[in-house]
Amino acid sequence: MYVKNKTNSSWWLGNDFFEEDRDILTGDIVSDRTSELIKLAGYRRAISNFVNIVTGKSDIPVYFQGSDSYTDGKSINISASIKDKDFDSTVGLALHEGSHILMTDFEIMKDLNAGFHIDPELVDTIYDKYKHTKEHFNTADASRYITDKIKGLLNIVEDRRIDNFVFKTAPGYKGYYHALYNRYFNSSIIDKALESTSKRDLDWDSYMFHVINITNAKRDLNALPGLLDIYKTLDLANIGRLKTTKEALDVAFNIFNIIESNIPKPQVESQEENAPSDDGEQEETESTETTQGSGQEANTPLGDAPGDDGSKAEGEEATTSTGSNLRELTHRQEKQLENAIKKQEDFINNKIKKTKLNKTDQKKIKALEESGSEIKKVGNRKKHMYTDEMVNTECIVIRKLTQGIIDNGGYGFLTGQAYRSRGIDHAEAISKGVKLGIRLGKKLKLRSEERNTKFSRLDSGKIDKRLISSLGYGAERIFQQVLTDKYTPANVHISIDASGSMNGNRFFNCQTAVVAIAKAASMIDNLDIQVSYRTTTDSSKPIILIAYDSRVDSFNKITTLFKHITCSALTPEGLTFEAIQNEIVAASGDKESYFINFSDGMPYAEPKGYNYWGPTAISHTRTQIENMRKKGVKVLSYFIGNSNGLANDDFTKMYGRSATGIDVTSLIPLAKTLNKMFLTK
Q1: What order of strands is seen across the sheet that includes strand 374-382?
Q2: Alpha carbon of residue 119 to chain centroid
Q3: Which domain holds residue 235?
């Protein structure tokens, strides 16, 4: 599925990032919590990177927590909901909040809440104007009134100031800001309201509505007296002139004074107003008007609408005259307008509602991020022979085994307790492997050794000083050469079948062999080892865990964490091999590469909407093995079991002539094979 509205993020996220899993037969959406959390982890990480790039700070954390959008000056909270239509706007919101951290003086915000920065004369003026409207109204009430209004105005001015910074310093992110404003500010009902008789009363609600939407292409600076002066005071074309939050606060006070000067002193009501009569107007039956509107043609972050350089507004006169061209909104439209205004005000006041994550999911996401988990699309093939429609499935790749992923990952083949089966302790198998590995490592020590052979009395090479004295006696062959004989460095990737059929002695003995190889490799300098385990999730989705990499991990990781690896579920083979093709080191002129596979059966998996078994699975697995060999990787595959029948034949089809059956209860044949491989120059 191609997400058409991913104009900004699709190029780096991929078109299928938000694609929903659907059953091929029913079309029903298939829910997989693990996949969702992995996507959320990638989503948070991507947004965090954006914030770090724009702000130039690498220590700004991005969280999924709380119910409101906010920044406390140190961190950013984002929504835990992934919806393709909202992703760009969420990136924009995170960038917006990150800019607050970089540029906003939060102390001024705190001081304002405490009543500072307010001129006492202004307090007296407001007190005189409104003292008769409320019993016991005092100067403290007047101060709170001013603070409440100024906070909203300051947020508007400050938002424009900091957004201008991103526009100027990182213009490539404009698209995310346009998506942000299009989501929270632009709607068809806002456009209609600006061209209607609504919100034209001389009160704060009306003024705030027009100030918030002052960059909308459908704005009317004649709607209220003083709007043109407010427009000029904001001077959005030169908003970069405001270098500090204090300067933005001064502009907010100027706008406050303009608005208050045009709002008449309230009159004391002598009698209740009569309820408005019903004019008999029938409500419209049109669909809701709260959908996102005209994008950049409506409200834009920094006044990109035509005329926002001030040229259009310069000659306009501010009047409150409502001409015949102004329509009235229906009752239904008025309710829609209230909702749209609430949405705008929530944004201005940093109260955007967010989808929360429970503590369990937060821990899982943290663990998934630490483990480098990601989702790969694999197994791309035709849905059936009569169509060109392609299908694939997701494979979960866990790039790093951590204690966190063991405790919080929720995978069936990882257990919090040390794995035991049929009376056998997994830790014992690992301990046995360490002992065998030490013996194997001693034999492999010679891989690290260099043997130098000196050849003398040659016609060319390096002069042998011992033969210089013979030059006068007819001797001419006084040169020597030294030949160095050493083993080529090698990389070995060991992949283990962790399906349910491997449970018991097969798995434990296999683990012993793998641990022995890893231990031996840790004792020499020119042999790198990676160990991976493959199976399926509870929903039959392929999953592969890269549990150990000697290039970055200490051997202690094996002795402490491998005891938590168990067997479960199915055998996705080629699907997992495809997912880690890039992790399998290609051979080069100065490095050999091996892929060693342990398996007890044929590939089989049933992810939702995708069937993987029989000839299809065998052919796909063979293709992945061939791709490895094209990279110069030598493949050795061990079939674990006693079968010499069809299964073994199919095994050879997949892995080639190097495939061999092996009884892992006896490690001697395996050791001989590995010794021969590792000690071949």
Answers
A1: 374-382, 390-398, 542-549, 527-536, 490-497, 592-599, 634-640, 660-662
A2: 47
A3: 117-265+290-353
- Residue 290 reports pLDDT greater than 90: no
pLDDT confidence of residue 478: 67
Distance between CA atoms of residues 410 and 373, nearest Å: 13
pLDDT digits (tens, 9 = 90+) for 66-106: 545 567 778 888 777 656 677 788 888 888 888 888 899 98
Give the max Cα distance, the chain. Answer: 136
Residue type at position 17: F
pTM equals 0.70
3-state DSSP assignment of residue 374:
strand
Q: Which two tokens stand for residue 470?
A: 């013979």
With a CB cutoff of 8 Å and minimum separation 6, the contacts of 554 are none
Claim to verify: residue 415 and residue 553 sit in the same structural domain: yes
Bridge-based pairing state of the strands 390-398 and 542-549? parallel
Q: Can you read off the two tokens belonging to residue 636?
A: 């050795």
Cβ neighbors of 571 (< 8 A, separation 6 or more) are: 497, 499, 501, 534, 535, 536, 599, 601, 602, 603, 604, 605
| CATH code where residue 580 lies | 3.40.50
Report the C-alpha gap between 375 and 19 in whole angstroms: 12
Contact between residue 437 and residue 670 where contact means Cβ atoms under 8 Å apart:
no
User: Which residue type sits at 535?
Assistant: T
319 near 222, Cβ under 8 Å?
yes
Give CA separation, 457 vs 107, 433, 460, 466, in Å.
85, 50, 9, 10
- Residues 160 and 53: their CA atoms lie apart, in Å, by 20
**Tally of domains within the chain:** 4
Whether 663 is in a domain gets the answer: no
Among the three residues 73, 104, 135, which one is the final residue of a domain in this structure? 104
C-alpha 534/C-alpha 547 separation (Å) is 10
**Radius of gyration of the chain from its Cα atoms, rounded to whole angstroms:** 36
Classify 79 as helix, strand or coil.
coil
Q: CA 9 to CA 674: how far, in whole Å?
A: 47
